[in-house]
Design brief:
Helices cover 13% and strands 8% of the residues. The longest helix is centred in the N-terminal third of the chain and has 11 residues. It has one domain: paralog of FGE (formylglycine-generating enzyme). It is mostly loops. A two-stranded antiparallel ribbon has the order 1-2. The chain is built from two helices and two strands; from the N terminus they run ααββ.
């Protein structure tokens, strides 16, 4: 692509601050490579499955988060509030141990786009749900009166 929009431009770090549109443009270019015709972003359910790597815990390494296991800013309530020693920057892609399936930093470091539209979780269990149709989103599913895509991981 043209310019790297990242705030932290170390070549080993993930690219951040990319829009949904830029992400889709990149994927369309990837699909032109031999054998890449079916590349796409995962659904939120697929992302969760890959992240958990066969575990049933809230995190792929258990139920407690720490700066030894994840690069996170510490600002989010779900992570226990602001943490002393949080990096406040992205880190190189393999800075932390991978999950059981060899995927690195599924928790923390950068937010990752999913293909689904954001909506409240269904009350019943579903196998590989794909999220709602954009035309069926409710007011509760909107961010600033606009539909938005799901982001996972994050810091």
């Amino acid at each position: 692509m043209k310019d790297n929009p990242s705030e932290f431009k170390n070549p080993e770090n993930p690219v951040e601050k990319i829009s949904w549109k830029d992400c889709q443009t990149f994927i369309e270019k990837l699909k032109q490579l031999p054998g890449a015709k079916y590349i796409n972003l995962p659904t939120e359910a697929q992302w969760e499955y890959a992240c958990r790597a066969g575990t049933t815990e809230p995190l792929n390494f258990g139920s407690e988060i720490s700066l030894d296991l994840v690069n996170y800013s510490g600002k989010w309530k779900g992570f226990g509030g602001f943490s002393e020693g949080a990096q406040k920057a992205t880190v190189a892609a393999k800075s932390y141990k991978p999950n059981a399936w060899g995927l690195y930093q599924m928790h923390g470091n950068v937010w990752e786009w999913c293909s689904d539209w954001f909506a409240a979780m269904p009350s019943q269990d579903a196998i590989n749900p794909t999220g709602p149709d954009k035309n069926k989103l409710t007011e509760n599913d909107m961010f600033q009166n606009e539909p938005c895509r799901v982001l996972r991981g994050g810091s």
